[in-house]
Design a protein that fits this description.
The chain is mainly α and 360 residues long. The chain has twelve helices and two strands, in the order ααααββαααααααα. Strand 1 and strand 2 form a beta hairpin.
Length: 360
Amino acid sequence: MRAVVVAAFISLVFSLLVTPLFIRYLTRKQFGQFIRQDGPATHHVKRGTPTMGGVVIVTAALLGWLGGNLLTGRVPNASSLLVVFLMVGLGLVGFLDDAIKISRERSLGLRARWKFLGQGVVGVTFGILALQFPNEAGVTPASTAISFLRDSALDLAVWGPGIGIVLFILWSNFLITAWSNAVNLTDGLDGLATGTALIFFGAYVLVQIWQLNQNCGLTNYTNSCYEVRDPRDLAILAAAVAGACFGFLWWNASPAKIFMGDTGSLALGGAIAGITIVSRTEILGGVIGGLFVVIVMSSVLQIGYFKLTGKRIFRMAPLHHHFELMGWGEVTIVIRFWIIAGLCTGLGVGLFYAEWVSSL
């Protein structure tokens, strides 16, 4: 527990104190956000607000994670290293996207094919490595089984080990792409994505600590134990990311002094995908992060319905812009969406605990 607290404290303090310095640097360099012309009119006043704040979030999370481990005499294990690789790798893709937007003074950055290629290279590498590095008990960071609250009986390797690995890589890359785009779409109002990510990673600190206490190598409850390779490492990393989001939210809350940009949204999406995959809670992550799922589905439904009928379901997608055009204030939307995120988290954590109790 000491490492978890230290990680959260280091990342929170770094993010809180360094973000205003980064804001001054970005302002001096005139690295500001460009706003899409077809968005809500109230967003045009945000033009020029410093962006790429994800650099601070990722750096703070890394320092917190390393500090929490090293100051308590620990060496990071494979699972957290893989999630960090995914977070940093997607963060670099987002950084390139943000840099192009700034240099070309437009709201569009990397072309879609290059963005998906970058995500794909990072995601495929993660998928391959996640099935390596078995510990003494032979447990690897991830498995080819589809997981909800733990690995289910639906194993992708049922068609053979080679096919199972290929299917797992496809499945993990679907999750990585889905989560990174979900956070990216949610990052449309001041503080919305940051606060929702904070709630998500805070919940996963609890999930990982519970998995640690009920790990198959430490408990006699064989029917309800969790076969997760490095739950303590994942708890430390989740705490570090949560702390980084907490400190950044002070400056990102309305009226935002800085935006996380694609650097932050892709990195956080990668961290969410990675931590759900290596903790064997892939579907549970969709419940705990239910607000992200709702927002990305609102865009999917809007696009699909428009292509089929030529009409729109919402006034504008993603969903938070629909409520803006209905006249809701930005702060009202963000707070109510945070409440929904909290309810989704409560439901997910409740399901997680209820399943453990029922399996005793």
